[in-house]
């Protein structure tokens, strides 16, 4: 592994040439308008899974039905107990010094079954109090409407495979806009639709545990994009004029680097990007699926004997409905990949990876040596920001997630290295390439329930003691480093306010 990594580093430096000398931290300052923040999500921190009228989400159901779905057999029933400790959390955010807090609303607190007739005032009140509490401390709320916790009742009716879920999402969103809209000016609809589809409906690792990697994932993408567009149009038709906020989708993507300078690897890297980023960005920012997906999935579907493509075709009306539904670009970015071409896979079981026809390295390999490699060569952030800026012309980008997992140690130098490197690379994109990155909400404010990994992966800059009933919070070294960055708008120790 180590050898491979050393080779890769040389290739990367070569590929970018002298224009991108890495490992040197940019010591200039971020623009004054830059917004610093931190991020969380409801199921990952709140707990209180059945309190005050909350209904069962598909993650409650998934983890209760079989504890084996998480590495440590634990679930989000209590998590960080933020449902009760929200006042303390606001004080932590204030102490950190950030001006932006990205969090998600739990659909089943607002509509316990997912249907309008189950409206739950206590759930609405909880979030109204919370956003007012943030605003009282000068913290801007950035609200995600959906971060993976679908009402279980809707899941039982097909969930993200059923087009009608998009309508239910619209109804839920309208209630949230009505109640939180007077206080919230920055919204995102759906968080990481790709990961929801790939892990929830492809590998089956996440809720609802469906394993249809060649079929359900494409229908899931369609329904989540329809849901996103439905909420976007409701906001713009009914609320935006009065409330004046912005709303967009949050897409997770990697930066994809050709493994060699061969033509085939260059094509493979671009194909990887289309199947990864373009899958969701193209319908919203350009219109329709990426052509390469239409061609390849259509072709393989025919050969497999399907009567129509496994990638559901949009109608002309649907293309128009989804196209242009963005006020900024919400980007979650954790890593870069090295991509190589592979020969055309034989026709057999339908499979996204054969549809894509690429091989990637470092995708899911989180060994310590990879960690230090990524921390030292975070070049992909600049590359991806430039790609998004040039291909989708979004006007404004928020990096809504970026972060590093450790075992939870307080002295977390590897996280500092990672954040410093990625932010430095982001600053290059802002100052040298003219990419308008408006803000950054690091993942995560605190250690939390990391889905199928349970509590084994700790992404927080603030530690949470999951062995104490108090869920005691403690600033890690990275939180102190981030405090300094947020104060000085600068990534090196030498900077002063
Ligand atoms: C969980 O895993 C254990 C050990 O592999 C197994 O014995 C048990 O049957 C599993 N439980 C369920 C509900 O699948
Ligand atoms: C989709 O949801 C609707 C209710 O909105 C339900 O009537 C229908 O049976 C569902 N379809 C599937 C395939 O589950
Ligand atoms: C479909 O795939 C086959 C086998 O890889 C290839 O020969 C053919 O050119 C492809 N056709 C299209 C339209 O992509
Ligand atoms: C509970 O945790 C908070 C920090 O999260 C800490 O300030 C407080 O002292 C703790 N209380 C107890 C009784 O441990
Ligand atoms: C930034 O780097 C330049 C060039 O290495 C150096 O001259 C300058 O003093 C540095 N500024 C800070 C604030 O570290």
UniProtKB/TrEMBL annotation:
Similarity comment text for this entry: Belongs to the glycosyl hydrolase 1 family. Klotho subfamily.
Name the record gives this protein: Cytosolic beta-glucosidase
Reactions accelerated catalytically: Hydrolysis of terminal, non-reducing beta-D-glucosyl residues with release of beta-D-glucose; a beta-D-xylosyl-(1<->1')-N-acylsphing-4-enine + cholesterol = cholesteryl 3-beta-D-xyloside + an N-acylsphing-4-enine; a beta-D-galactosyl-(1<->1')-N-acylsphing-4-enine + H2O = an N-acylsphing-4-enine + D-galactose; beta-D-glucosyl-(1<->1)-sphing-4-enine + H2O = sphing-4-enine + D-glucose
Span of the signal peptide: 1-17
Species of origin: Ceutorhynchus assimilis (cabbage seed weevil)
InterPro entries per UniProt: GH, GH_1_N_CS, Glyco_hydro_1
GO molecular function: beta-glucosidase activity; galactosylceramidase activity
Annotated EC: 3.2.1.21, 3.2.1.46
Pfam families referenced in this protein's UniProt entry, alphabetically: Glyco_hydro_1 (PF00232)
GO biological process: carbohydrate catabolic process
Bilayer-crossing regions: none
């Amino acid at each position: 592994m180590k050898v491979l990594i050393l080779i890769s580093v040389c290739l990367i430096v070569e590929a970018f040439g002298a224009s991108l000398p890495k490992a040197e931290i940019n010591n200039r300052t971020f623009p004054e308008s830059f917004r610093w923040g931190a991020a969380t999500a409801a199921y990952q921190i709140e707990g209180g899974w059945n309190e005050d009228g909350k209904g069962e989400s598909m993650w409650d159901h998934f983890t209760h039905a079989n504890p084996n779905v998480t590495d440590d057999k634990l679930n989000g029933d209590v998590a960080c107990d933020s449902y009760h400790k929200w006042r303390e959390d606001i004080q932590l955010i204030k102490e950190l010094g950030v001006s932006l807090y990205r969090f998600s609303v739990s659909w089943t607190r607002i509509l316990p079954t997912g249907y309008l007739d189950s409206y739950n005032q206590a759930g609405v009140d909880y979030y109204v109090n919370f956003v007012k509490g943030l605003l009282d401390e000068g913290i801007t709320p950035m609200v995600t409407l959906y971060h993976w916790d679908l009402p279980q009742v809707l899941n039982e009716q097909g969930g993200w495979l059923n087009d009608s879920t998009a309508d239910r999402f619209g109804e839920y969103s309208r209630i949230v806009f009505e109640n939180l809209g007077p206080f919230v000016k920055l919204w995102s609809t759906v968080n990481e639709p790709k990961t929801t589809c790939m892990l929830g409906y492809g590998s089956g690792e996440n809720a609802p545990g469906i394993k249809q990697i060649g079929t359900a994932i494409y229908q899931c993408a369609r329904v989540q994009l329809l849901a996103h567009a439905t909420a976007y149009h409701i906001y713009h038709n009914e609320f935006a004029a009065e409330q004046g906020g912005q709303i967009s989708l949050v897409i997770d993507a990697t930066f994809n680097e050709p493994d060699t300078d061969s033509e085939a690897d260059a094509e493979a890297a671009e194909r990887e990007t289309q199947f990864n980023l373009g899958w969701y960005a193209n319908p919203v920012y350009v219109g329709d699926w990426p052509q390469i997906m239409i061609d390849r999935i259509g072709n393989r579907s025919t050969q497999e004997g399907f009567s129509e493509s496994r990638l559901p075709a949009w109608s002309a009306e649907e293309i128009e409905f989804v196209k242009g539904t963005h006020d900024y670009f919400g980007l979650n970015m954790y890593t870069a990949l090295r991509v190589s071409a592979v020969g055309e896979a034989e026709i057999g079981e339908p499979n996204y990876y054969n549809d894509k026809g690429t091989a990637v390295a470092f995708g899911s390999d989180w060994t310590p040596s990879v960690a230090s490699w990524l921390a030292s060569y975070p070049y992909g952030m600049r590359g991806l920001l430039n790609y998004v800026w040039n291909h989708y012309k979004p006007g404004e980008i928020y990096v809504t997630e970026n972060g590093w997992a450790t075992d939870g140690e307080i002295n977390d130098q590897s996280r500092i290295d990672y954040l410093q490197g990625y932010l430095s690379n982001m600053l290059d994109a802002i100052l040298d390439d003219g990419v308008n990155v408006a803000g950054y909400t690091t993942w995560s404010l605190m250690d939390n329930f990391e889905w199928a990994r349970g509590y084994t992966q700790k992404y927080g800059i603030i530690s949470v003691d999951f062995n104490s009933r108090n869920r005691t919070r403690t600033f890690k070294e990275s939180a102190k480093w981030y405090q300094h960055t947020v104060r000085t708008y600068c990534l090196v120790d030498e900077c002063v306010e």
